[in-house]
Amino acid sequence: MTATSPIAASAPLRTARRAWLTDLPVLLVAVVWGASYLAAKGITTTHTVVAVLVLRFAVVLPALVVAGWSRLRALRPAQWRGAGLLGLVLSGIFLLETYGVVHTSATNAGLIISLTMIFTPLAEAAVTRTRPPRAFLAAAALSVAGVVLLTQGAGFTTPSPGDLLMLLAAVARTVHVLAMSRIKAVRSADSLSLTTVQLGSAVLVFALLAAAPGTGASPWSVALDFGVREWAGLVFLSVFCTLFAFFVQMWAVRRTSPSRVSLLLGTEPLWAAAAGIALAGDRPGLLGVAGAVLVLAGTTWGRRAAGAGPR
Asked: What InterPro entries does this protein's entry cite (predicted)?
């Protein structure tokens, strides 16, 4: 028999340890994103949505501008325009999500928005005129059935306005992803500059809405009314769910594969449901639990089937 070198035997352990050191921060991003729905619900009302969005992104935007100033100056006019257009779509996503989470449970919000993982490959297949795998279509049907059960956990009724807004937000996220892949000018732009311009465009939209009459409280008055709990929630959304999440994604993609990062981030709806049930007392009922399981199963199956090619 040939003895195995202790050094050789420890190499796989070191590789596995390095992989987990990369995976854990990405998993933490999925956790904070899952908790973000509950955090947003806790500090936002119908009349403060726009003001909270202004404050949320105004907090982190200066840091992004300072960190990427030299690369921002290097952007071409076409890249500025493309990133600005994406920022307009992004502003719509955040408006829909934030208004949606005010009018539904954190559990529903996190699970419904996960349908983006199903909508995006379907929309891409429609644009490119390719047929998605049959397994993917089955997974999509499973996810849709899950959402129906989830939103009817207390009995079959009309879905709440918040549920419908979250569904529209999932569609808007799909449009954003497809636009990023099809606007040629932004493909060569670095991630930091692209994100900074998008967030800047979104903040501009929110600021204009906040200045318009009839859009709720002003950011200044909301900031003055915030107590310690509200400011803690805002800092969590700004620093952890935006700034920290963005840099971890950039860091992780350079050390592992985009597919691995995507798979870990795909656990976001699970954490949203866990936060809603554990911290907010959400009680989806037996139908809702069955729907949540179907959504998670369908989106997981769909992600795998989407990479299998047409059948």
From this structure: Diverse_Substrate_Transporter, EamA_dom, EmrE-like
Nearest to 202 by CA among 97, 116, 83: 83
Query: End-to-end alpha-carbon separation of the chain, Å?
Result: 47
CA–CA distance, 114 with 170 (Å, rounded to integer): 7
Per-residue tokens: 241: 């769910």
Q: Tens digit of pLDDT for each residue in 96-155?
A: 999 999 998 888 888 888 888 788 888 888 888 888 888 888 888 888 888 777 776 655
Instruction: Please count the helices (runs of H) and the strands (runs of E) in the chain.
Output: 16, 0
Closest alpha carbon to 220 in 68, 59, 55? 55
DSSP 8-state class, residue 212: S
- Which residue bears the tokens 């049907």? 141
| High-pLDDT (> 90) share of the chain, % | 37
What span, in angstroms and rounded, lies between the C-alpha atoms of 157 and 155?
6
What is the residue extent of each domain of the chain? 39-306
pLDDT at 9 over 50: no
Burial of 127 (0-12, 13-18, 19+ CB in 10 A): exposed
